[in-house]
Amino acid sequence: MILLQSHSRFLLQTLLNRVHNIEKGVELDHHWVEFDDVRYHIQVSMKNPHIFLLSVSLPTPSSETIFVCGLPFGAIEAIKAAYGSHVQILDPPRDGFNLTLKINLSKIPANQDQRHAFLVKVASVREVVLGAPLRVILKHLASRTVAPDMDRLVALVHRPKESFFLLPQVDKVTVVYPMRFNDSIDIVLATSFLQEFVEARRTAGLNNTPPCSWSHTPPVELKGVSTDALSANAGFVSFVIFPRHVEGPKLDRTVWSLSTFHAYVSYHVKCSEGFMHTRMRRRVESLIQALGRAKPDPENSKKTSHNRSFQRLSLKDSRTNSFS
């Protein structure tokens, strides 16, 4: 199994190149899109080569998801905690984006290791923003409390107009994913993958992992949720997170894994589909080669037929040959 990286590789490489060549004053203006429709835009002008503007557009939230000023709840506090005074939040953000950050590259840490760690954190802005509500809930779980103003059921966006749901409690947090896929083949592969995923949890070496379950029908935790939010063609996956899963450094890994679970499944479904296509192509090629070897060679057939000759014998010659 391959886990997705929390930082954007293209954004990190761009930041590193900019820091190393900051005196050249090259103008930058790049747009790109990453999985789950998260869009980025970076800008650097010739007049201010030290100022790096980063804009981020998040997936369109569904009706049951609540955004505060265009961002998930807790996102502003998470940005300030992650980047401190090195990053400024522009209000309002650039048109068409949920967030615009202004980074002064001349004020980032001078130490090479600290600078690299800071740039990796900037490149992980997706995790900081989209994972902010989940981080708030899991931090309360680590202290075995529930936020006083928290709803019984919390919906968090992870794909365009699609949400997953959390049921916070003092001793556990239940996370439920309605799994949706557009392609019929993806639905079949994802259903098989998720069933095997649940079975793998029962092996001896994975006893400490979060309990996992899968079902065709919505679990009881989603009672009262709108019908549109429960339209899942690949079933529902549920995880139960306990305080031991969010202790210390485990928190970051748990937040990222839960935030990108659907993308994780989609990635492996597409890899499985590509692997099967490759195997089928190789099988077809081997069958074509076998048929090619079994087909008679027309040149050899002509040579064989030309070499055959028949000689008419007289009655006397035939008797001579028979007695000899």
TrEMBL record:
Keywords: Actin-binding, Cell projection, Cytoplasm, Cytoskeleton. This is Arp2/3 complex 34 kDa subunit. The gene is LOC101492474. It is found in: Cell projection; Cytoplasm, Cytoskeleton. InterPro entries: ARPC2, ARPC2/4. Component of the Arp2/3 complex. The keyword Heme does not apply. It comes from the Eukaryota. Functions as actin-binding component of the Arp2/3 complex which is involved in regulation of actin polymerization and together with an activating nucleation-promoting factor (NPF) mediates the formation of branched actin networks. Seems to contact the mother actin filament. Arp2/3 complex plays a critical role in the control of cell morphogenesis via the modulation of cell polarity development.
